[in-house]
């Protein structure tokens, strides 16, 4: 397997894949990893990972299924072919919190800071869920669960307010 990216999304994908893949390549476009230090260390300590810095994907090969990947080291120009059966593009995303960034607190990555139990933000009466919120994992099923928590919390808030 290969994961493309150097931030938290990519590092978490590598850790998740280590349970299923015999080997995971992490291809990082820049010369540094940008994810959290603990996850970086976990990956560096794993004998089943290879981190390729300054590396760009040139080609993904295969027909119905991925069979390999060709990458180029941008510092040396060296081309490398990797035999693998899957590629995960984890280059991250920018949360779309522009609309509310003056209303609620956001973290250094631009995510809306929420209470993990309720989804409430720093502003009373405003909740957030999904990839725009500061939840640890960015997955659809987790975002849906966080949205349900927020909706139930909104309902409780409105019922209490009516009394």
From TrEMBL:
MF terms (GO), sorted A to Z: oxidoreductase activity
Matches recorded under Gene3D superfamilies: FAD/NAD(P)-binding domain (3.50.50.60)
InterPro entries: FAD/NAD-bd_sf, FAD/NAD-binding_dom, Ferredoxin-NADP_redctase_2
Keyword Oxidoreductase (UniProt): yes
Domain of life: Bacteria
Flavoprotein is among the record's keywords: yes
Keywords recorded for this protein, A-Z: Flavoprotein, Oxidoreductase
Residue ranges of domain FAD/NAD(P)-binding in the record: 2-144
PANTHER family cross-referenced by the UniProt entry: THIOREDOXIN REDUCTASE 1-RELATED-RELATED
Name of the protein described by the UniProt record: FAD/NAD(P)-binding domain-containing protein
């Amino acid at each position: 397997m290969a994961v493309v990216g150097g931030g938290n999304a990519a590092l978490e994908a590598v850790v998740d894949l280590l349970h299923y893949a015999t080997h995971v390549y992490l291809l990082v476009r820049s010369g540094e990893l940008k994810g959290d230090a603990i996850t970086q260390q976990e990956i560096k300590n794993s004998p089943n990972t290879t981190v390729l810095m300054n590396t760009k994907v040139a080609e993904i090969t295969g027909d119905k299924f991925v069979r390999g990947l060709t990458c180029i080291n941008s510092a040396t120009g060296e081309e490398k072919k990797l035999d693998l059966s899957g590629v995960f593009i984890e280059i991250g995303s920018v949360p779309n919190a522009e609309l509310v960034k003056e209303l609620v607190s956001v973290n250094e990555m631009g995510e809306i800071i929420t209470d993990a139990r309720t989804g409430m933000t720093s502003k009373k009466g405003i909740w957030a869920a999904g990839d725009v919120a500061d939840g640890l994992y960015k997955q659809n099923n987790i975002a849906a669960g966080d949205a349900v928590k927020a909706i139930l919390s909104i309902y409780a808030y409105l019922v209490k307010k009516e009394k």
